[in-house]
């Protein structure tokens, strides 16, 4: 086993002088400190200290032993950052008063992966981030590429190469951090891209998503661009989803969601999916956690023909119009958007899936039709419900759902509900340009 001293020596030789001790706040935003490499032992054993109440969503007091939040580095996550030569990132777990902090999102996910491990299972997660490359100009945020104007911009090979400097730096940087990059494409909105990399266990995937966001921001910044994980920046165009491809595996290395038939799930897979459908309204609060998120989920058309975001609680084999697209031995959870905290979204979906398994829930009939084409009355007749239409409604659903609340833990759940209700209230008080234009001279 490599000792910390050996590791320090190896890194020093490779030019690393500073560690980025990074933790994740309740909003899924990377926070942290620079720590000299010489302090590696202290970062791993005790953690870097932060003022607890200065971090969103901790609910920690201003005084006393519980006012200190320690970010304790997880050595397994250490990676030198090519876009910041000399720096290496270490993902940290929150500790307070010498014990794991219940409201640290990484700890929240670890509690759920531990529940899986107790049953001999591991969740593999492939996360597909979509994002926009914008510029801030006089008129506000606009797609960085003025020539990116196609009516159907998906897979556009004229605008994709124009952003190749950003995309190549991002892909090369992430590859050096251990990502296996699979594909990079222009998505279905102007200025929107997606980068796909190989799946990993849930915790590793969440840690990687945070590193992806850090890299995206840093590289865009250098190029004078704005990297945006906002769910729906432009009303007439598709938003940014963050789909999760999920599958349960046994300790024997066998996929437990595969039953041998193409495009079919095993009993276990079906129960898991049934749990995800059952808890969808509450999961919506953490998978689509901003007021803006619900503009993506509205089911409305876009200039390209469709938003490709779910509006209803449904599943179907290879059905991209459903919230759950089932595939052979895995399923794609299409609800989360780019603003979701990956730790919380994964913790929630594990708790929902385990509830489905424990209660042996069966999903409703699979949908094979285009759900965007179905009339609301016809959907209602089939028992297909809509996802919550607002963040407020999703928070109501969360407050009624003991399974998802328990997964988040009492402290984080209370903080989340409080912060999000305030976000809803702020938004409700705001008078938009749309309102002014529509009503100012109308009556
Ligand atoms: N942008 C779509 C969404 O918001 C997804 C497009 C796709 O299927 O890749 O979910
Ligand atoms: Mg996509």
Q: What can you tell me about this protein's structure?
A:
- The protein is an alpha+beta fold.
- The protein has two domains: 98 residues, Glutamine synthetase, N-terminal domain (Ubiquitin-like (UB roll)); 324 residues, Creatine Kinase, Chain A, domain 2.
- It is built from 15 helices and 17 strands.
- The strands form two sheets. Strands 8, 9, 10, 11, 12, 13, 14, 15, 16 and 17 form a ten-stranded mixed β-sheet that branches. Strands 1, 2, 3, 4, 5, 6 and 7 form a seven-stranded mixed β-sheet that branches.
- The longest helix is centred in the middle third of the chain and has 21 residues.
- The radius of gyration is 22 Å and the shape is globular.
- The chain starts with a helix and ends with a helix.
- The site of glutamic acid has 12 residues, from loops.
- Beta-strand portion reads 15-25%
Whole-number total of structural domains: 2
Q: In this structure, how is the largest beta sheet organized?
A: 10 strands, mixed
Q: What small-molecule ligands were found?
A: glutamic acid, magnesium ion
* Class by SSE composition: alpha+beta
Overall 3D geometry? globular
Radius of gyration, in angstroms, nearest whole number? 22 Å
CATH architectural arrangement of the largest domain: 2-Layer Sandwich
The total of helices stands at 15
Strand tally: 17
Q: Which regions have little confidence, pLDDT < 50, spanning 5+ residues?
A: none
């Amino acid at each position: 086993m490599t000792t910390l001293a050996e590791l320090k020596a190896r890194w020093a030789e490779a030019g690393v002088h500073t560690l980025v001790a990074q933790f994740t706040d309740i909003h899924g935003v990377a926070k942290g400190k620079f720590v000299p490499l010489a302090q590696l032992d202290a970062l791993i054993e005790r953690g870097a200290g932060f003022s607890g109440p200065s971090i969103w969503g901790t609910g920690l007091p201003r005084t006393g032993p519980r006012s200190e939040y320690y970010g304790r580095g997880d050595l397994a996550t250490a990676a030198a950052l090519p876009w910041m030569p000399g720096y290496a990132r270490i993902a940290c777990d929150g500790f307070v008063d010498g014990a794991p902090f219940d409201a640290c999102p990484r700890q929240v996910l670890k509690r759920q992966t531990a529940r899986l491990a107790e049953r001999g299972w591991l969740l593999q997660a492939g996360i597909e981030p979509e994002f926009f490359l914008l510029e801030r100009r006089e008129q506000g945020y606009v797609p960085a590429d003025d020539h990116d104007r196609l009516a159907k911009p998906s897979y556009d090979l004229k605008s994709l190469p124009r952003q190749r400097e950003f995309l190549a730096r991002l892909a090369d940087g992430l590859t050096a951090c251990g990502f296996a990059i699979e594909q990079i494409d222009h998505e279905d909105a102007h200025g929107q891209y997606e980068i796909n990399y190989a799946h990993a266990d849930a915790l590793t995937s969440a840690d990687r998503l945070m590193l992806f966001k850090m890299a995206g921001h840093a590289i865009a910044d250098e190029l004078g661009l704005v990297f945006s994980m906002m769910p729906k920046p432009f009303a007439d165009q598709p938003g940014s989803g963050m789909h999760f491809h999920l599958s349960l595996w046994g300790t024997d290395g066998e996929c437990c969601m595969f039953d041998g038939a193409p495009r079919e799930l095993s009993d276990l897979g079906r129960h898991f999916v049934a749990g995800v459908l059952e808890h969808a309204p509450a999961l919506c609060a953490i998978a689509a956690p901003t007021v803006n998120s619900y503009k993506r989920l509205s089911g409305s058309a876009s200039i390209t023909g469709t938003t490709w975001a779910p509006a209803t609680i449904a599943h179907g084999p290879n059905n991209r119009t459903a919230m759950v697209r089932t595939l052979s031995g895995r399923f794609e959870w299409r609800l989360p958007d780019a603003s979701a905290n990956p730790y919380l979204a994964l913790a929630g979906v594990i708790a929902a899936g385990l509830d489905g398994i424990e209660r042996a829930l069966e999903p409703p009939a699979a949908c094979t039709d285009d759900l965007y084409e179905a009339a609301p009355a016809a959907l209602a007749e089939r028992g297909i419900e809509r996802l919550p239409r607002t963040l407020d409604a999703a928070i109501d659903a969360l407050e009624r759902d003991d399974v998802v609340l328990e997964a988040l833990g009492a402290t984080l759940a209370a903080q989340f509900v409080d912060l999000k209700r305030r976000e809803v209230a702020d938004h409700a008080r705001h008078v938009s340009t749309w309102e002014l234009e529509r009503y100012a001279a109308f009556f």
